[in-house]
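Sanity check

After download, print the first record. It should look like this:
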Amino acid sequence: MKKIEIYDTTLRDGAQAEDVAFSVEDKIRITEKLDDLGVHYIEGGWPGSNPKDVEYFKKVKKLKLKNAVVVAFGSTHRPKIKVDNDPNMKSLVESQAKVITIFGKTWDFHVKEALKITLEANLGIIHNSVAYLKKHAEKVFFDAEHFFDGYKGNPAFAVKCLLAAQKAGADRLVLCDTNGGTLPDELRKIVHEVIKQVKTPIGIHAHNDSDCAVANSLAAVELGAVQVQGTINGLGERCGNANLCSVLPNLQAKSGFRCISDENLKKLRDASRFVNEIANMSHFKRQPFVGDSAFAHKGGIHVSAIRKRPETYEHMRPELVGNSQRVLISDMAGRSNILRKAEEFKIRLDADSPEIQGILDRMKDLEHQGFQFEGAEASFELLLKKALGLHRRFFDLVGFRVIDEKRHENEEPLSEATIMVRVGKHIEHTAATGNGPVNALDNAIRKALEKFYPELKAVRLLDYKVRVLTTGKGTSAKVRVLIESGDELHKWGTVGVSENIIEASWQALVDSIEYKLLKEKE
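Expected structure tokens:
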């Protein structure tokens, strides 16, 4: 069984999507999730382009990844600067990434019109860049930018660009359909010709402007490509990149290639929803393989048939990608997900436990209110423990007040929270300030509780996101708040929902604190 390398560029190419902006903490969390999924390479960003990516490469070194290697991305050196003096080259080396990917021009149109240099000079730039980086990294991948458009216009020059990178020692030659306009039949013909002319293993990097990115990626692999580059949920500039949530199951479950372990493939839906939550985007219900509707059945004839033999109206078993069959007129969906999560949390729950139905009913009610637990695993673990009698109440709220005051037009607002909580027979009443109402409330509640639970001193609020759930209601809309908290060793996500943003934030903050205290007492 031929093994295919999965190269994820969600953190770099995916972050170029409209409405997507990842913080450094977002990128670290997604890195951990992708590593758990089992991808081979995670393109972390362009360390020479912005301070955020520089910080990311410093922080990511501290992670103990099990499966993936983090890749630094950049371009070939500038035409008028020697390779060893180019700041971009230095930034790539300083990232200390074991693998570096650089892109270079392979379309003569770009070389002449964008770089304003000769074709021969461009070949030298590619060779010099790859050769220089090979001295500083274990592997160097060459992304042949606009390769298919370049090949259509000047096939001899496009191939010469690949050969220049190959001669310099590139470990992979990645053919990029940068504008996303190549159709599968065109791509097959070009890849077939290219493979006969190069010795270095090739990869494929397809964009989705013609809605062919997945099809083009599969076609390239069938012809001999050993690496597929793409993003979770197809995030990316313009119409996006090849969607790994479709590429992975199509290659592994349908075409006989080996990408990740079968056990990890079952985590695909979870990874898809996790990235959407961190990106603060709605889940695409009809996304193939991992969407809510991917294996949902409503028509009477369909429902009758799938109850006897699922394959009558399903192209594959949904469990292979972590999804589940849904019959829209019943409550069949969800049990397997709950059992799987309970096992992950090391909570004993038998398949025939009567509590499962209560958990399902509670989940349906919460989802109707707007709760989503992807990216808020700690809140879901608390939900399970409450339903199974494994939860412990550490404190009770007596009341809180939050004041946000702006004293002058040119001054920043002042936020202060006052809180009263009961711990056993003790009442604690305190106040704290913050750089916003939520930060002030977070500071106040931890200030009130730290004398009883000193372990809370290690907890920090790392990230905070708000999503409006009910459109058309203006400032009275219901919102979902997603909070990431952490201590010296771990990070966890919690969620709250309300028409009042402070109340939604309170729910998520309380879950965060209770989760920490429960873990300390286990």
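If your output differs, re-run the checksum step. Summary of this record's structure: Residues 329-333 have pLDDT under 50 and may be disordered.
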